[in-house]
């Protein structure tokens, strides 16, 4: 019959192993996980659009039903500027880096034609959200090579 101490040791070991899996072993840091995982619940996501070779890429804010980015995910090269442009649909939106460092964050705006831009100088995956519509899966991703 197992002792209380042996049961506790197994439980602590399992919890520690599970926690280690959450903390380490992920090549994506600060919440910038694989776009296929990050965007798995985003209805409009159908792959990463390749925009390598472009100096500037435009992303619509408030696309589709007013609660989407278009394109949802893009691949660019280092030094590319992404310009998010508001459609005016779906209420007020913003663009906020989902990583813990909040590398970029726009104002909360509901105005057609408003723009926010950010130049991606470092390679990596940069996931972002619209904070008022995060529960509606208004998410996007920029993959920088």
DSSP strand count: 9
Content-based structural category? alpha/beta
- Helical run tally: 2
The 3D shape can be described as globular
The fraction of residues assigned to DSSP E strands is: 25-35%
Determine the mean pLDDT: 85
Residue stretches low in confidence (pLDDT < 50, at least 5 long) are 2-28
Strand order of the largest sheet: 1-4-9-8-6
- Roughly how much helix do the residues carry, as a percent range? 10-25%
CA gyration radius, whole angstroms: 19 Å
State the distance separating the first and last CA atoms.
56 Å
> How does the major sheet shape up?
5 strands, mixed
**What order do the SSEs take from the amino end to the carboxyl end, as H and E?**
HHEEEEEEEEE
Task: Walk me through what this model shows.
The chain contains 2 helices and 9 strands. By secondary structure, it is α/β, with parallel strands linked by helices. A 5-stranded mixed β-sheet has the order 1-4-9-8-6, with no helix packed on it. The longest helix has 20 residues. It is globular, with a radius of gyration of 19 Å. The N and C termini lie far apart (56 Å). The N terminus is likely disordered.
How are the secondary structure elements laid out?
Elements: H1 4-23, H2 35-38, E1 49-50, E2 56-63, E3 68-70, E4 73-76, E5 80-86, E6 96-97, E7 115-120, E8 124-129, E9 139-144
Parallel strand pairs: 1-4, 2-5, 4-9
Antiparallel strand pairs: 2-3, 5-7, 6-8, 8-9
């Amino acid at each position: 019959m197992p002792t209380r101490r042996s049961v506790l040791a197994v439980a602590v070991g399992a919890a520690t192993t599970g926690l280690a899996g959450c903390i380490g072993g992920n090549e994506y840091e600060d919440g910038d996980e694989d776009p296929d995982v990050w965007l798995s619940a985003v209805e409009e996501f159908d792959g990463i659009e390749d925009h390598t070779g472009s100096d500037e890429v435009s992303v619509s804010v408030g696309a589709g039903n007013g609660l989407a980015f278009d394109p949802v995910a893009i691949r660019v090269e280092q030094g590319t500027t992404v310009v998010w442009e508001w459609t005016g649909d779906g209420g007020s939106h913003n663009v906020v880096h989902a990583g813990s460092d909040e590398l970029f964050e726009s104002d909360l705006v509901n105005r057609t034609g408003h723009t926010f831009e950010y130049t991606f100088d470092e390679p990596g995956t940069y996931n972002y959200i619209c904070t008022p519509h995060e529960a509606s899966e208004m998410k996007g991703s920029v993959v920088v090579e």
